[in-house]
Amino acid sequence: MEQQLYKQLLSAAIFSVIGIVIFAITFAIMSKITPFSIRKEIEEDQNTALAIVIASVIIGIALIISAALQG
Fold first, then answer.
1. Number of separate domains in the chain
2. Mean pLDDT, the chain, as a whole number?
């Protein structure tokens, strides 16, 4: 029983790391393909609309990765 718990915890940790790595790669690609600096637009220019769009994309990517990892 205890060994099964450790196996499930290890599996969850591995899938979490895989999900975070995929998410980071996807976010880096998204930052590279935009013709402007996302950080500058959100932080310096206070572009709230862009922040909402980027947040929506981040949530969408996270949901897709979550669904893919769950099978």
1. 1
2. 87
